[in-house]
């Protein structure tokens, strides 16, 4: 009886259905709660109206403005960023066959941080509102290109070498960022840099949603098509090659898609940790290691995690707003430590 119930709760239909409902509920709650609270029913009707459903809303002009122009873009950016980090973390953990890997380990997050900090330090953000995310994405792309180029020409082109190169580049870029922070010319510049490095979703607009929606959604779909390849890579490179897979080409494609999503996400949110590390672990404990379920479930789980974390960051210390990156660390670190302890002898499941 217990086994039958466990199979039901871990079936793909149940997993995706429950995660979708939780994501919808978290979006409605996050859009409705705040200094100007909007009832759950009115928020839900306004969202349906936004999706062109034939419904009549009784919300006033103030509530409509708050939901549609202030909160909803922020919530959707959070959901897209969380989905990108969640599925990227799951794919890279499968690619490296290492449960402690997250997207930032190959230098994507550090590259984005370096690009954004350079834009803030040299005052380039005054040239346009989109220059900061553009600089962050350029830095992420540069970091990935450097890592892949060095890995391509190294004598040992293994995943371990790639991981070590990422750790080295992260250290180098962190040193560059620390130099820029230490030499900041004024307090406002320093506050802007620290604020971005902590990760946040403040003042996100529909323009930010449009900027990242297409690359993240397309990359998510394409990455899910590599689920079978990731399952084979879990068995080892030799087994994957004997099955007809071009291991090196598949690694490049998976790394490229994961880096594109992570770079797009970090470009509009700043550095947000633990989503790509903790969420895939939680989903894997629930569904198992099959990437056909793990990848889309991690995307949904990451979206839920970040939307809820952003809601907590806005509500827990009103009127003070915490950075969502700080809240993710406060939630994610204890969860991760608990999973390590639960797995026994420090080995993560």
TrEMBL record:
Keywords, in A-Z order: Cell membrane, Membrane, Transmembrane, Transmembrane helix, Transport
Domain of life: Bacteria
Coiled-coil blocks: none
GO biological process assignments: siderophore-iron import into cell
Any one GO cellular component localisation term in the record: plasma membrane
Topological type in the membrane: Multi-pass membrane protein
Keyword Transport appears in the UniProt entry: yes
Pfam families hit by this protein: FecCD (PF01032)
Gene Ontology MF term list: transmembrane transporter activity
UniProt cross-references to CDD domains, sorted A to Z: TM_ABC_iron-siderophores_like
Transmembrane portions of the chain: 72-92, 104-124, 130-150, 162-182, 211-231, 252-281, 293-313, 320-341
Main localization (coarse): membrane
Name this protein carries in UniProt: ABC transporter permease
Family per record: Belongs to the binding-protein-dependent transport system permease family. FecCD subfamily.
Localization annotation: Cell membrane
């Amino acid at each position: 009886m217990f086994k039958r119930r466990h199979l039901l709760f871990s079936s793909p239909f149940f997993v995706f259905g429950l995660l979708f409902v939780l994501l919808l509920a978290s979006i409605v709650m996050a859009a409705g709660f705040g200094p100007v609270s909007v009832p759950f029913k009115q928020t839900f009707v306004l969202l349906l109206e936004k999706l062109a459903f034939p419904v009549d809303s009784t919300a006033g002009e103030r509530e409509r403005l708050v939901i549609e122009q202030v909160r909803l873009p922020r919530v959707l950016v959070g959901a897209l960023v969380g989905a990108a980090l969640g599925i990227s973390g799951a794919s890279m953990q499968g690619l490296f066959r290492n449960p402690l890997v997250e997207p930032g380990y190959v230098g994507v997050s550090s590259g984005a941080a370096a690009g954004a900090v350079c834009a803030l330090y040299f005052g380039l953000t005054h040239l346009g509102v989109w220059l900061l995310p553009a600089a962050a994405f350029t830095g992420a792309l540069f970091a990935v290109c450097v890592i892949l180029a060095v890995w391509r020409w190294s004598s040992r082109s293994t995943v371990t070498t790639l991981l070590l190169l990422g750790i080295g580049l992260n250290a180098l870029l962190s040193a560059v960022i620390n130099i820029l922070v230490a030499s900041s010319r004024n307090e406002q510049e320093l506050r802007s840099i620290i604020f971005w490095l902590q990760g946040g979703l403040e003042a996100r607009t529909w323009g930010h949603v449009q900027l990242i929606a297409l690359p993240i959604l397309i990359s998510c779909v394409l990455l899910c098509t590599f689920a079978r390849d990731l399952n084979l890579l879990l068995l080892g490179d030799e087994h994957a090659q004997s099955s007809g897979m071009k291991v090196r080409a598949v690694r490049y494609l998976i790394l490229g898609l994961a880096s594109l999503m992570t770079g797009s996400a970090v470009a509009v949110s700043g550095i947000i940790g633990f989503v790509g590390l903790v969420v895939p672990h939680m989903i894997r404990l629930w569904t198992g290691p099959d990437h056909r379920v793990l990848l889309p479930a991690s995307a949904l789980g990451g979206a839920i995690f970040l939307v809820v974390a952003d809601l907590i960051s806005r509500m827990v210390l009103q009127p003070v707003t915490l950075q969502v990156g700080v809240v993710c660390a406060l939630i994610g670190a204890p969860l991760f430590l608990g999973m390590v302890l639960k797995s026994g002898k420090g080995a993560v499941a």
